[in-house]
Amino acid sequence: MTVNADVIGAAEGPWTGPTPRPVPGEPPQPSGRPLPPSHDPFFRPPRGFARHAAGTILRIRTVEIALFGLVPQHVTAWQVLYRSQDLHGAPEVAVTTVLLPEGATPDPERPLLAFQTAMDAVTDRCAPSYALRRGALSPGSITQLEWMLVANALRRGWAVSIADHEGPQGNFGVAREPGYRALDGVRAALRFAPLGLRADTRVAVWGYSGGGMASSWLVEMAPEYAPELNIVGAVLGAPVGDPRHVFLNLNGSLFAGFPAIVMAALRQVYPAMDEVVRRDFTPRGRRLLDRARSLGPIAVLPLLVGRHMDDYLNRPLAEILPDLEDMFDDLRLGNRTPACPVLVVQPVHDQVIDAAGIDGQVARYREGGAAVWYVRDRLSEHFSLLPLATPMSLDWLADRLAGKTLTEPTTKTVWSVALSPAHWRGMVEMATTAMRVTLGLHLRPPAAPASGEVSGLAA
Predict the structure, then answer these.
(1) How far is residue 263's CA from residue 245's CA, in Å, rounded to a whole number?
(2) What's the structural domain count of the chain?
(3) Has residue 306 been placed in a domain?
(4) Where is the sequence biased in composition, kind Pro residues (predicted)?
(5) Do the domain assignments include residue 459?
(6) Which long-range contacts (CB under 8 A, 24 or more apart) does 34-39 make?
(7) Are residues 249 and 305 in the same domain?
(8) Is 88 exposed, middle or buried (0-12, 13-18, 19+ CB in 10 A)?
(9) Distances (CA, A) of 95 to 43, 55, 91, 183, 323
(10) What is the pLDDT along the chain (459 residues), one digit of tens a residue?
(11) How many CB atoms lie within 10 A of CB 114?
C-alpha cells in the first residue's frame, strides 16, 4: 500500500507527521507496476514550492522496496519530495528514498548514509525512486544491482537516503547538480520525523562510478552549499575524475555506450553540446542518441560495442572537441575542496574509468588541502571492485561515524583489497546480506568487526 501526503505547510522545519491525505489528481495505484516519475503525480511540483528553502519537505509517501522489482525487502521506506535547485540555481523539486531497517524506531543517535547510485542513464526508469520499488520494470538498471550493497548499510542499523541525483530530466554527467540534489535530500531526511534524526546527525557519503561522480559533487559542493551538515567522511569509488578523458578513452571501445548516454543528457543542459548534436551529428547519429536516452546502461552497452563517434558525425571529432572544451572544464572534478575526510578507491587497470583521471582528481583535492586516503587495486577491474571494496568502504565509514582517529593521508597500491584478512569477515557478511536480499529475508545485524581491522589498508 502507498500512502501519500502533501506536507508543504511544514515549511522549513521538521516534518512531524500530519495525517496523510491523497495527493490531488493522483490516480489509484495500479495493482501491478508503479508509474515512472514522468507520469507519476507525486513528482509534480506543488504550487508555491519555490518560496521555500532548499531541503524543505513538500510531499511524502510510503513505498515498498523489492529486489529487481520482484522480491519484497524487509525495510521501511518512504519517498520525500523536497525543494532543491538546478545547475543555474533555479528552484526545482527532487526526490529521495529514505530507508530504515524493518522495525527500527526513531533514534537521534542513528547515523545517516547518503548513497548515490550509478544511475548512468537519462531514462527515468533508472531513477532509484522508481527502480527500487516493488513492481518496477527497469531493464538495464545498475541501481537495482546496487541494492544488494546498500542493504549492508541497513544491516548496520544506519538510516539511508538515496536521492534521484540526476533530477527529473535525467541529467547524467552534469556538473554540481547532483551535489545540490543529494545535499538537499540529506537536509530533507534530517527533517523527516519518522527517522528521528537531529540537525547535527553524523552523515556518511558513498558512491561508485556514476555514483562516485555524484558523491564527489556532493562533498565538493557541501562547504559552500550546505555547510551546516555534519558530513564526517566519504568513500568515492572510481569517481570519473575527468569526463573528457573518459569520453575519449571509451570512444570505439566495448563501453562506447556510456559516452552516447552522457551526450544525450548533456545536450539538455549545455548549449554547446546541443549545438554540436544539431549541427554535426548525422541523422543516424541523432537516432543513436535518442535510443541511448531511452534505455538503461546495461541495455545500451551491447548495442553500441565498438562504435566510433566519427561514424556518426559530419566532420571529424577532433575538429568538434574545441567547441566543447568549456563544457568539459566545467565537468572536471577536483576543482573544489571537500571539507570531510575522503577515501578514494580505484582499479589500476579500470577498463571504463582510466586511473590517470582519478589520480588527477586526488591530486587536485590534496592541492586544495583535502585529507584524502587513496587505495589503488591492481587485480580488480571496474565492475569487480565495487563489491570487493564494499566491506572496506563501509568499515571505513563506520570508523568515521564513530569518531576514530585517522593516520596521515596515504596512497597505497595493493594487489587486491580482497586479500586483506581484515576484509574476509566483511566479505562473508556481504555474501550473507546478498542471500537474505535475494530470498527476501530479514536483514539481521552483522557481527561487529574487530576494532582496528580497517586501519592496515585504508586508515
Answers:
(1) 14
(2) 2
(3) yes
(4) 17-39
(5) no
(6) 34/63, 34/130, 34/133, 34/134, 34/135, 34/136, 36/124, 36/125, 36/130, 37/95, 37/124, 37/127, 37/129, 37/130, 37/164, 37/168, 38/124, 38/168
(7) yes
(8) exposed
(9) 8, 10, 13, 11, 34
(10) 444 566 664 445 555 544 344 454 445 455 478 999 999 999 999 999 999 999 999 999 999 999 999 999 999 999 999 999 999 999 999 999 999 999 999 999 999 999 999 999 999 999 999 999 999 999 889 999 999 999 999 999 999 999 999 999 999 999 999 999 999 999 999 999 999 999 999 999 999 999 999 999 999 999 999 999 999 999 999 999 999 999 999 999 999 999 999 999 999 999 999 999 999 999 999 999 999 999 999 999 999 999 999 999 999 999 999 999 999 999 999 999 999 999 999 999 999 999 999 999 999 999 999 999 999 999 999 999 999 999 999 999 999 999 999 999 999 999 999 888 878 888 899 999 999 999 999 998 876 654 445 545 666
(11) 28
Distance CA 235, CA 368 (A): 18
- Name the residue among 406, 419, 413 with its Cα closest to residue 455: 406
Give the domain CATH number at 322.
1.10.260.130
> Domain of 91?
4-242+332-441
Domain boundary pick from 330, 349, 383: 330
Q: How many CB atoms lie within 10 A of CB 349?
A: 13
Same domain, 214 and 306: no
Quote the distance between the C-alpha of residue 167 and its chain's center: 11
Of the candidates 262, 233, 232, the one whose C-alpha atom is nearest the C-alpha of residue 245 is: 262
In this structure, which amino acid lies at residue 253? Answer: S
Q: Are 195 and 225 in contact (CB under 8 A)?
A: no
Same domain for 119 and 197, yes or no, is yes
| Single-letter residue type at 282 | T
Question: The whole model's pTM is what?
Answer: 0.93
Q: Say if CB 308 and CB 259 are below 8 A apart.
A: no
One domain, residues 248 and 396: no
